[in-house]
Amino acid sequence: MTYQHLTVAGEPIALPVGKVLCIGQNYQDHIAEMQSKTAPQALFFIKPSTALCHFSPGFSLPQGQGAVHNETELAVLIAKPLRQADFASVNDAIWGYSLALDLTLRDVQAQLKQLGRPWEIAKGFDGACPVAGFVDKALLQHPQQLEFRLTVNSQLRQQGNTANMIRGISQLISEMSQHFTLLPGDIVLTGTPAGVGPLQSGDQLQLQLADVFTVNSKVN
Q1: What is the CATH number of the domain that holds 166?
Q2: In terms of C-beta density within 10 A (0-12 exposed, 13-18 middle, 19 or more buried), how is residue 64 classed?
Q3: What pLDDT band is residue 33 in, cutting at 50, 70 and 90?
Q4: Is 13 a member of any domain?
Q5: Which of 81, 135, 139, 193 could be cross-linked to 27 through a Cys-Cys bond (beta carbons 3.0 to 4.6 Å apart)?
Q6: pTM of the predicted model, to two decimals?
Q7: How far is Cα of residue 138 from the mean position of the Cα atoms in its chain?
Q8: Is 94 inside any structural domain?
Q9: What is the pLDDT confidence band of residue 150, given thresholds at 50, 70 and 90?
Q10: Which of 185, 197, 177 has its CA nearest to residue 44?
């Protein structure tokens, strides 16, 4: 199924499909579990539009490339161009919110890190960003206070709250826009909390965004 932006009710959103802009190391508990080195500057990276796929009804994983880890993140759909934007401009440019998985080829990423090479192929492969349907921002009064979770085979895998972001939504998007122009239809992933781990074919998944939506999927 070709990807297009959808509401959580499955209705098409009249925005083009763009790139996915991501931030790493935006939750302290994930930094700790990965024993990551940090820096004052934000860790930004980009997934191409070809990484996007629908979370439901199911998605596939790359084969023969080692472990594929889940990273559950609040996703932000951009509706207006942003370049060197201030916080107010960021808020005005947001269409709405969802949840997405920043799928990561963890073994590939580790090997590339050891070699001192960029690790885009571990993050940007086809299907590397399953996305649930979006909710209009008008329906969310406090996007910076949203609890979200991922269960795998009915077992809680990840649980986080957007209040615990190191860089909040407006700050991180504003900082992104100093380096990359964000265009209508781009998606911003806002970082993952602790609880990343390997997915397997046949896993049953459920994403929950506060009391806003619950969606199910499976790994094909």
Answers
A1: 3.90.850.10
A2: exposed
A3: confident
A4: no
A5: 193
A6: 0.95
A7: 21
A8: yes
A9: very high
A10: 177
* pLDDT at position 59: 98
Q: Tokens 């390997």 label which residue?
A: 198
The whole-angstrom separation of Cα 184 and Cα 216 is 27
Residue 35 pLDDT = 66
Partners of 77 in the β-ladder: 96, 187
Distance CA 65, CA 74 (A): 26
The tokens describing 129, both together, are 């960003």
- The one-letter amino acid code at 201 reads S
Beta bridge partners, 148, equal 160, 209
User: Residue 174: which H helix or E strand, with range?
Assistant: helix 169-176
Q: Tell me: the pLDDT tens digits for 50-88?
A: 999 999 999 999 999 999 999 999 999 999 999 999 998
Which 8-state DSSP code applies to residue 182? B
Residue 98 placed within a domain: yes
For residue 61 the two structure tokens come to: 């994983």
> What percentage of the chain exceeds 70 in pLDDT?
96
Domain that holds residue 34: 20-147+157-199
Task: Please give the tally of structural domains in the chain.
Answer: 1
